[in-house]
Amino acid sequence: MPVERDALDQVVARLRSAKSVTVLTGAGVSAASGVPTFRGPEGLWRSFKPEDLATPQAFRRDPELVWEWYDWRRQRVAACLPNRAHEVLAAWAARGPGLTVITQNVDGLHERAGLVDVIRLHGSLWELSCWSHCRQSPESWRDESVPLVQIPPACPWCHGLARPAVVWFGEALDPGQVARADAAARCDVFMVVGTSSVVYPAAGFLDLARAHGAFTVEINPDETPVTSRVDVALRAPAETILDTLVTGLHPS
Ligand code: OAD
Hints:
Elements: H1 5-17, E1 21-25, H2 44-47, H3 50-53, H4 56-61, H5 63-78, H6 84-94, E2 99-103, H7 109-112, E3 119-120, E4 123-130, E5 141-142, E6 162-166, H8 175-185, E7 189-193, H9 205-212, E8 215-219, E9 232-234, H10 238-249
Helix pairs in contact: 1-10, 6-10
Bound molecules: 2'-O-acetyl adenosine-5-diphosphoribose.
C-alpha cells in the first residue's frame, strides 16, 4: 500500500516545527542490512527459544551454548553494513541538536553509520561484562573480535566467566539508559520505527510521549499493537520512508 502524500506532508510539517524529535528503533531498522529480526517469519525467535539462550538461567546452565549463539550473531552482524535508515538518522543528528535516537538493537549499526550518543536500552553485542561482577572489572568492556578467540570468553580481571553485555529476559534495564530515554520521550515528535512494540519497558515510551503531548508516528510495513494509538502510521520500510521524510525536512 503506497504511503499517502497527506500523511507524509503532515509528518514533515510537524518535524519542521519540532524543537525535539525522538526516534525509538527496533530490529526492523536493521532488516535491510540483513540482520534477522526477532518475530517476523524469518525471526530469530522462530528458530530459537529465548529461554534456552537469552536468560541468566540459560547462561548459568550452559555458558558455552549461549556464547556460541552470540558468537554466531556477532559474525552475522559483522558481515552486514548500515543501511539507508541508519545513514539518514546519523546525518540528521549531525545537523545539530534536536534528534535523539533510542534503540532496542544490540547490533551497533547506528553507531557504525556515525550516530553518536545513542540510548541503548538492551545493551550491545560488542560489549562484555563480568558474570560475577568482580570488583576489578569495569561495568562492561568492548570486544570486537570475530569470531571470539575463546568460547566462553573470560573476564580479563578475575579470569572467571564473561557474559554478553546485553539485557536478557527477566533482567532489569540499565537505569541510566532508562532515565535518558524517559527524558527523551518528553519531546515534540516521537517516532517508533521498525519495532513490533511488544517488549516493555521500551514499548511504553510511546505512551509517555503521548502523555507529554508529543505528535506520534509509527514507521513499519506491518500493523503492531501501537498502530491505533499513533497520530500517523506510515506503512513502509524504514530505509525508504526515513529518506523521504528527511528529504522533505531538509531539501538540498
Ligand atoms: P521484532 O522482531 O519484534 O519486530 C521487528 C519489527 O520490524 C516488526 O514489527 C516488523 O514488521 C518490522 N520491520 C521489518 N522490516 C522492516 C523495515 N524494513 N522497516 C521497518 N520496519 C520493519 O523486533 P523488536 O521490536 O526490535 O530484546 O524486538 C524488541 C526486542 O525483542 C528486542 O530488542 C529483543 C527481542 O526479544 C531483547 O533481546 C531484550
